[in-house]
């Protein structure tokens, strides 16, 4: 089953395409819950999860949040250059359109161009192009950076 939802960003309509086995619409809270093998496509983001909640502001055409739950939930974001695509996964992925941030909670992992970061929680600000990784007590943030070292022979 395909469901379409609209989001208005910068006076431009964006389409969210969601495929799931089941959906529940709550018109009082302006939320839609999709369950069972859910896939979501929004802009250049593909999201795969067990359950996805889509929330709209009071104006039904204004998307306010997307929340994905999975074991893990997976996010793929293609970049314009197609070389620096982002792969991310965590137990919960929360995208807020109000401040344009994506929060990964629970076994969070993000990889791009061979570089990766693993933490209990990662907050990524799309507008600011900033990332903050936070780990619970006793755990560490683990970052792997790929360096390009060329050897010169004499």
Automatic annotation (TrEMBL):
Q: Which organism is it from?
A: Candidatus Blochmannia vicinus
**For this chain's UniProt record, which GO biological process terms are given?**
lipopolysaccharide transport
Q: Does the keyword Transport apply?
A: yes
Q: Which terms in the Gene Ontology molecular function aspect does this entry carry?
A: glycolipid transfer activity; lipopolysaccharide binding
Q: What is this protein called?
A: Lipopolysaccharide transport periplasmic protein LptA
Query: What's in the keyword line of the UniProt record?
Result: Periplasm, Signal, Transport
Location of the Organic solvent tolerance-like N-terminal domain: 18-129
State the GO CC annotations: cell outer membrane; outer membrane-bounded periplasmic space
**Sorted alphabetically, which InterPro entries does this protein's record hold?**
LPS_export_LptA, LptA, OstA-like_N
What NCBIfam families would the database entry show? outer_YhbN_LptA (TIGR03002)
Gene3D superfamilies given for it? Lipopolysaccharide (LPS) transport protein A like domain
């Amino acid at each position: 089953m395909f469901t379409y939802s609209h989001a208005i960003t910068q006076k431009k309509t964006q389409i969210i395409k969601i495929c799931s086995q089941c959906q529940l619409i709550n018109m009082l809270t302006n939320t839609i819950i999709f369950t069972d093998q859910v896939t979501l496509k929004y802009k250049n983001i593909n999201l795969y999860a067990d359950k996805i909640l889509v929330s709209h502001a009071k104006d039904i055409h204004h998307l306010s949040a997307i929340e994905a739950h999975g074991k893990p939930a997976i996010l793929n974001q293609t970049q314009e250059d197609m070389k620096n695509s982002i792969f991310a996964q965590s137990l919960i992925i929360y995208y807020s359109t109000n401040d344009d941030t994506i929060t990964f909670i629970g076994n969070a992992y993000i990889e791009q161009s061979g570089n990766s970061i693993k933490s209990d929680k990662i907050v990524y600000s799309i507008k600011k192009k900033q990332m903050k990784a936070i780990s619970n007590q006793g755990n560490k943030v683990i970052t792997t950076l790929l360096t390009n070292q060329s050897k010169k022979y004499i």
